[in-house]
């Protein structure tokens, strides 16, 4: 297994750690964490720890793709698993943030529905011996989601002092890009659906 693929696997391993860290019932365990106050944001230790892990995982996404292309290490595994690792990471956090009402539930539902449809098309393609790489719109969606989720986890840092909800705005923008990229992906690959019927 080459280095880019190892980074993809690492990203998948980080996801359950983030989920457990986020969902542990700290109040019932009588655990009290410090809160950092900076530029109008109040960030508790758990959100900070989850944000650091999320940013680390997001950076591995950028690095694995760059390495794979620059060193000619692109593999079928990487083409297939890299987008799945991204979706596991991003969708897990979207669900957690919607659960605690940090972001609109509708945004989470639309983005996950889009991913399910795209994944179904990918599975159909795989059955027909085709590997569909991520599209530029899909990459823009993932990048916007990652930046937006990072801002939400950091309680709108560094924008909180402005009073503008940049974090939620980025999530809404990611939702719009997600829907557009989903429609684009469907239109470009609809022949796979019709071939399988």
From TrEMBL:
It is found in: Membrane. Keywords: Lipid biosynthesis, Lipid metabolism, Membrane, Phospholipid biosynthesis, Phospholipid metabolism, Transferase, Transmembrane, Transmembrane helix. It is an enzyme of class 2 (transferase). GO terms for biological process: glycerophospholipid biosynthetic process. Its EC number is 2.7.8.5. InterPro entries: CDP-alcohol_PTase-I, CDP-OH_P_trans, CDP-OH_PTrfase_TM_dom, CDP_ALCOHOL_P_TRANSF_CS, Phosphatidylglycerol_P_synth. The chain crosses the membrane at residues 7-25, 45-63, 146-164. It catalyses: a CDP-1,2-diacyl-sn-glycerol + sn-glycerol 3-phosphate = a 1,2-diacyl-sn-glycero-3-phospho-(1'-sn-glycero-3'-phosphate) + CMP + H(+). GO terms for cellular component: membrane. GO terms for molecular function: CDP-diacylglycerol-glycerol-3-phosphate 3-phosphatidyltransferase activity. Signal peptide: none annotated. It is a multi-pass membrane protein. Pathway: Phospholipid metabolism; phosphatidylglycerol biosynthesis; phosphatidylglycerol from CDP-diacylglycerol: step 1/2. Belongs to the CDP-alcohol phosphatidyltransferase class-I family. This protein catalyzes the committed step to the synthesis of the acidic phospholipids. This is CDP-diacylglycerol--glycerol-3-phosphate 3-phosphatidyltransferase. It comes from Candidatus Fimiplasma intestinipullorum.
